[in-house]
Design a protein that fits this description.
This protein has about 160 residues and is an all-alpha fold. It has a domain at about 20-135. It has helices at about 20-35, 40-60, 70-135, 135-160. It is elongated. InterPro entries: DUF1003.
């Protein structure tokens, strides 16, 4: 009995199924869906259907390959639509996944920004409080003026005491 170790990768198994890269297939489906949503595709399809119908109406009977009611054309357009719909859905799913990831990143960035704003707000409030406690220029002038008066008072008293 062999036990699989979880700390080591599994060995690749050979299978008869073809291997495909889901990411590459997803990119291809997005490219196809992007092309199907363009005006160029509409013009190409219009030209294609117009040429098809014109050929099968105006060509000699021996060269007509899909006479009216154009069953083969209808089959081809149905086949194209049956492939286009799942490819478009796959592309939309991938876009939805990208949008979800982008939303998460935006939310995280908004949370970080909010935290920074709150931090800066607290810092500004702290600075305002600290500035209120710091001696202002007017306060210092008033205090120095008061001290000067106190220093000058003893001189004035002594002059008054001394006879002239």
């Amino acid at each position: 009995m062999t036990t699989e170790r979880l700390d080591q990768p599994r060995e690749l198994r050979r299978t008869l199924r073809p291997h495909y890269d889901p990411e590459a297939f997803g990119r291809l489906s997005e490219q196809i869906a992007r092309f199907l949503g363009t005006g160029r595709f509409i013009v190409y399809m219009t030209v294609f259907v117009t040429v098809w119908v014109t050929w099968n109406v105006a060509a000699p009977p021996s060269l007509k390959f899909d006479p009216y009611p154009f069953i083969f054309l209808t089959l081809m357009l149905s086949l194209q639509a049956s492939y286009a719909a799942p490819l478009i859905l796959l592309a939309q799913n991938r876009q939805g996944d990208r949008d979800r990831i982008q939303y998460e990143q935006d939310r995280e960035a908004a949370d970080r920004n909010q935290a920074e704003i709150e931090y800066l707000t607290r810092e500004i409030a702290g600075l305002r409080l600290a500035v209120n406690e710091v001696a202002t220029r007017d306060y210092l002038r008033a205090e120095l003026g008061r001290l000067l008066e106190e220093l000058q008072e003893p001189e004035v008293r002594e002059r008054r005491r001394q006879p002239r």
